[in-house]
Amino acid sequence: MATATGTMRKLHPLVTLDYRVRVVSMVVVALIPLFHFAGRPPAPALAGMVFTGLLWPQIAYLVAKNSRDTRAAEFRNLLFDSFFVGCWTAGMAFSLFPGAVMLAALNSANLSVGGLRQAAKGLAAILLGMVVIGIPMGFRVMPESDLPTAIFCIVGILMVTTIFGYYGHLQTKQVRQAKNVLEERNDQIEEQNRAIEQARKTALIVAAVLALIAVWNIYRGRFTVTAVFGGVAVLLTIAGLFVPVAAREFHRVWMGIAGVLGYVNSRILLTILYYLLLTPYGMISRVFGRDPLDRRGPSRDTYWVKRKETRQTQQQFERLF
Prior knowledge:
This protein is mostly helical. It has two domains: 137 residues, no CATH class; 91 residues, no CATH class. Helix content is 82%, strand content 0%. The protein contains nine helices and no strands. The longest helix has 74 residues. The chain starts with a helix and ends with a helix.
């Protein structure tokens, strides 16, 4: 059970993608000779159709799945796909329409998964297949194709490219989702690191303040107070330097206390400022008739206050810089 699980974990996504596409595409490749030979393929061609359409996709998947390097094994499977296409191209006397469709499909598959290098190897495998089957058949060339064969080839290439594109889209979507999840985890880790760093700074700053208080109390001769503040300073220093979990908990409690103090102090200070400073000032201003906004005067066209003198000249207004 453990071995099977380990094998599944090492399975390259390309193996699954190509298996799904190969099951359909090889059936299409195997059925093209049926139309080419007008429903009466010879016995060797019939055996090749059964192998290509039914057996080879399963064999390729098992070989790749049980290989040590599943990605490299799947690249080799694509070369075998190319070889079989070359064999069928020569076996159908280089019929133009089926050959072009099969060659285009395999070449695009090799390009999409392995780039130019894999495509070059695929073309070499196609040529090898043509030679292997072409030699015993005398390289017989009959490029024409009937209408049913052409229609089936068009339908087949549409099916294969659609399936390949769809599963490729699904795989790309999974990769993008995995990337997003990884980025979110990295952001969470960075946020935790920043929180731990801030907690350490808080613990060390408070420890430094408490240490200064302890030193001051040594000077004052208060050794009990010195022992308390000094002991807490030592504990906070140890937490800030070596125990980030404890520093984070201290930071959380400390910020909670600071929030409560800030809530209370701000309201007390604002209340004192309003009732002991602003309210008396407003009342005294009313008693002495002071009106800085000039709200009690008669109505007028403009409330602009004209200045008797100004230091600015017209040139200064025109040239501000």
